[in-house]
Amino acid sequence: MSTRVTGTAFITGSGSGIGQKTASTLAQNGISNLALLDINTVRLESTRNVLTARFPNVGVEILTADVRDEASVEAAVQKIVARFGGIEIAVHSAGISGKTPDSDENSLANWQKVIDTNQTGVWLCQRAVVRQMQKQEDRGGRLGRGAIVNLSSMFGISVPPPEMGLFPYTSAKHAVEAITKYAAKAHAAEGIRINAMCPNVVDTPMTHNAIKDGLFDKTLDQTPMGRCGTLEEIADSILYLVSPMSSYVTGASLVADGGRTA
Ligand SMILES: NC(=O)c1ccc[n+]([C@@H]2O[C@H](COP(=O)([O-])OP(=O)(O)OC[C@H]3O[C@@H](n4cnc5c(N)ncnc54)[C@H](O)[C@@H]3O)[C@@H](O)[C@H]2O)c1
C-alpha cells in the first residue's frame, strides 16, 4: 500500500503555511487536481503559479472565499464539482491565532472571530464536503468515498500556558476535535473517513513573529524533541491521513508534537 493519492483535493487556507505545503505534497504524490481556497487572493495566485510551474499535469483551481460564510463555502464546492467532477480529499487548514492578553480580558469580538473562523469555518467546510462525497461512488477497498482532515492543534488536546493568550484559539481547536470525531462516527459506514491533525508549533506566517518574540519558548522547553515541527513533517502526516495507508483510521487525532503532550 502506498501514500499515492488520487482524484481531487480541496484545501482551505492553502494560500499559506500548512495548507500550501499540503497542496504541493499531494501534487508530489499523485493527486490529479487541486482546489485551493483562501480569503487572500494574492497568496492564492502566487501559490497557483508555483504549483502549475512545478506540476504542469495537475489541474489547479483557486477560490477566493471566506470559510465563515455559508453561501461562499457551498458555492466553492459547487464550482469544484463543476470543474473536476467531485472531491476525494479535503484538508481544512484555514485558521487564525486570535491572540489576546488572557481569558478574562478577551473581547467578545475577538472570541467571535476566532470561533467563526477556526470552529464554524471547519464545520461549514466539512458539512459541504461530506454532502458532496455522499453523492459520489464508493470506490471500495481502501479508498471508500473520500478522506477529510481537519486542522486541530496540540492545543486541541491540551491547554497552552495561559500567558500565551490563546484562549479562544484553544477553545475552537477543542471543538474541532469534537466536530471531527462526531462526523467520523456518523459517516464511517458511508466510506468517508474524517481525522484531525494536531501539530506542535510550526514556523508559518501565523506563528513567525510569535516564535521570534519568544512566545513559544516555554512550550518548546516542554517539548522533548526541543524544536518546532517542520512544514514538511506536518504535510507528510496529513498525506498519511488522506492516503489509503490510513484506510482503517477514522475519528483519530494524529499528534505530531515532538512528544510535548505525551
Ligand atoms: N503554525 C502552527 O504552529 C500551527 C500549529 C497547530 C495548528 N495549526 C493550524 O494549522 C492551520 C494552518 O495554520 P498555518 O500556520 O498554516 O497558518 P497561515 O496563517 O500560514 O495560513 C492560514 C491561511 O488561512 C487563511 N484564512 C484565514 N482566515 C480565513 C477565512 N476566514 N477564510 C478563508 N481562509 C482564511 C489565511 O489567509 C492563510 O492563508 C490553522 O488551522 C492553524 O490553527 C498551526
UniProtKB/TrEMBL annotation:
Q: Does Oxidoreductase appear among the keywords?
A: yes
Q: Which CDD domains match?
A: SDR_c
What Pfam families does the record tag this protein with? adh_short_C2 (PF13561)
- What keywords were assigned to this record? NADP, Oxidoreductase
Alphabetized GO MF terms: oxidoreductase activity
- The reply on keyword Oxidoreductase is yes
Q: Which Gene3D superfamilies match?
A: NAD(P)-binding Rossmann-like Domain (3.40.50.720)
Tell me which domain of life the UniProt entry assigns to the organism this sequence originates from. Answer: Eukaryota
Question: Which positions make up the signal peptide?
Answer: none
Q: Which InterPro entries match?
A: NAD(P)-bd_dom_sf, SDR_fam
What's the family? Answer: Belongs to the short-chain dehydrogenases/reductases (SDR) family.
Name under which the protein is recorded: Short chain dehydrogenase/ reductase
Organism of this sequence:
Aspergillus taichungensis
